[in-house]
Amino acid sequence: MQTARDISGYRRHWAERFGTAPFLPMSRAEMDLLGWDSCDVIIVTGDAYVDHPSFGMAIVGRVLEAQGFRVGIIAQPDWHSAAAFAALGAPNLFFGITAGNMDSMVNRYTADRRIRSDDAYTPGGAGGKRPDRSVIVYAQRAREAYREVPIVIGGIEASLRRIAHFDYWSEKVRRSVLLDAKADMLVYGNGERQICELAHRLAAGERIDAITDLRGTVFVRKNTPTDWIEVDSTHLDAPGPLNPPLDPYAMAATAPDAAVAAPDAAAAANSAVAVPPCASPAAAPGAEKVVRFVRRVKNADRGRSVIRMPSHEAVAADPVLYAHASRILHLESNPGNARALVQRHGDTDVWLNPPPIPLTMKEMDWVYERAYARAPHPFYGAANIPAYKMIRFSVAIQRGCFGGCTFCSITEHEGRIIQSRSEDSVLREIEEVRDKVPGFTGVISDLGGPTANMYRLACKSPEIESACRRPSCVFPAVCPNLNTDHAPLIRLYQRARQMPGIKKVLIASGVRYDLAIESPEYVKELAQHHTGGYLKIAPEALADGPLSKMMKPGVGAYYKFKELFDRYSKEAGKEQYLIPYFIAAHPGTSDEDMLELALWLKKNRYRADQVQAFLPSPMATATAMYHSGKNPLRRITRTSEEVRIPKGLKVRRLHKAFLRYHDPNNWPILREALRRMGRADLIGNGKQHLVPAWQPPGSVDAPQGKRQPKPARPFRTQHTR
User: Fold this and answer.
1) What DSSP designation does 494 have?
2) Are 455 and 488 in contact (CB under 8 A)?
3) Domain range list for the chain
4) DSSP 662-675
5) SS3 letters for 437-454?
6) How confident is the model at residue 714 (pLDDT cuts 50, 70, 90)?
7) Which ranges of 498-584 does DSSP label H, i.e. alpha helix?
8) Mean per-residue pLDDT for 401-422?
9) Between 487 and 1, the higher pLDDT residue
10) CA distance to 74, 95, 380, 638, per residue, from 61 (Å)
11) Rounded Cα distance, 340 and 342, in Å
12) Which secondary-structure segment (H or E) carries 145?
């Protein structure tokens, strides 16, 4: 893995003399109290400002403050005019725009595209305090307020929209959010490394449009520099022809992207192919530049090679080409070997530099030990912010996830390389929680991150890790090169629960159970000391069809984990249960798969209060499946593997109904489906049936004024065995 500059080692900016603010200011009055005449950076966020390391605006703000910069916060501004964006004056360096900890569309809409009435990141949980596509709206308003100030967008919303992406809410492929926001730069992934270097370089007088060598950033340029080598993405993955054969008698000129996306076999076999200017999307009209497309690049030239992706217009018109582009994007995601990507949007190139180098343990400790107040800004008074209430007693111990679940965006945002904190740093934060957070009762609600049990896990060989292109280290099985030793995590748990004033340390982050069974000692520690009666885990599905498209382990790993968990719980004299989570309507799922799952839930006496339907989030691999009907986990061609896609409100509703088979409101749709599937034998009032033949009064489709048969006795509890 390549190395990078230590983010704690920069020479501090001159404004360090103002010291540390109790809270980053949200008003000019607070700036006056701090002695500031201006801010160097202003962060605009869609979340309420909570000065806690679980909130992105707080981390970025405090990290920049530690570099000596003055940082202001504009939280949940009124976006109907530019007035709120001028509240702190013009920043000296740039506006940093983020939608917040969640994508604004996911925050505002359910998986069925119904608008939500609440928002956990808003005081009082009130909905409607942020606009749709917040990054775009905020960036445009900031530009209206101060036209000459650079705009830098980041956070998960910008990160997952950095390239042409399928948008579930509009059912079309949208162009890079960088262009729609009219921003100067996009920072993707966890942004501390990029944002520190960017701030120092701007403070030193560099122009933002001249900063094109910063990893983890996206920017716009007109053409590929002459000293760079372009690699056709279809040569890289060698998928064969993606487009139908060209008509030799057609009068219209060949479209540039068709020429690039469907090179003939002889040209593809060459190590370098000269493409006429008219066929190169990188060449401006009338230019005489000839771009070299190569299939293989010498190691010495990799640093100046860029992969030419199919253009936005091409992937918007062709779902199969979109799936190909998605596959290339995910193949080029390892910081150790990823190359730059470029994608044409009209007459402009969107250039993606390789991912940032992951933070070291020392840097992670430094980031999480800044001067966080660990509370909402006093501006909110005693208002309840649900997201803060959920995490105020939790501690993050790691970042990243190498699971690669296709429906999840964690890997696309945080990367596959696990970035862990030291044990001592975590324990120091627990002491901070114990001693400073109001209302602490002695219970740490979580020690975790994207997953509970990837702490300090990594490839056994740095050389193999830096060369690997696998999307997952644990699918279809745990990689033999992966170190699965949970001993450091067990030791951390033990040290945490033995601290004075700590009564209990719970684990609320999801446990990757196929990893956990590699360490029975970890399951024992988890079951006997860190579970409060119920433990959430996520098998997501049972059938091979959806599991193979999710990149999740088979049910055998679940049964093995359950056997260990039950055994160690019994040894400790505890009655504890697993709460399995499942996804409805995921690509690859059939009605028969959902029926099998419903019967399994009934057999094991599980009743889900809430169910999760697949939501095609931007840039996820499963979203490419949803849009294209192809499987980007394998090479894409016109005839490559087709994926069953449960689309439409009716089929999505049915799949959710199977998960809530016990809800009388779902019985009519289930009876109809069972008859259609030839499984009417599952309709009746016996234990062997899935749904009864009768409908209770007051429920959907219940006859009015007619006495209904007495229902069977319900299960005693939600999660009994």
Assistant:
1) H
2) yes
3) 14-221, 229-244+254-346, 392-625
4) T-GGGHHHHHHHHH
5) CCCCCCEECEEECCCCCC
6) very low
7) 513-516, 520-529, 544-550, 555-571
8) 94
9) 487
10) 11, 12, 19, 47
11) 7
12) helix 134-145
Lowest mean pLDDT, pick from 126-135, 187-196, 260-269, 489-498: 260-269
Element containing residue 348 per DSSP (H, E) = strand 348-352
Q: What's the pLDDT score for residue 572?
A: 96
Structurally, at CATH architecture level, domain 14-221 sits in 3-Layer(aba) Sandwich (3.40)
DSSP 8-state secondary structure symbol assigned to residue 380? G
Place of tokens 């209206």: 144
Judge contact between 421 and 435, C-beta under 8 A: no
Q: Which fold has domain 392-625?
A: pyruvate-formate lyase- activating enzyme (3.80.30)
- C-alpha separations of 190 from 10, 42, 187, 364, 479 in Å: 19, 18, 8, 11, 26
Give the separation between CA 443 and CA 297, rounded to whole angstroms: 55
pTM, full prediction: 0.89
**Residue 321, φ and ψ in degrees, nearest 5:** -65, -35
| Distance (Å, whole) CA 367 – CA 363 | 6
**Predicted local confidence at residue 409, as pLDDT:** 86
- The percentage of residues in the chain with a pLDDT greater than 90, rounded to a whole number, is 83
List pLDDT tens digits, range 230-245.
999 987 775 555 554 4
Q: How far apart are CA 457 and CA 451, in angstroms?
A: 12
Written as one string, the DSSP assignment of 3-72 is ----TT-SPPPGGGGG---SS--SSHHHHHHHT-SS-SEEEEESS--EESTTSHHHHHHHHHHHTT--EE
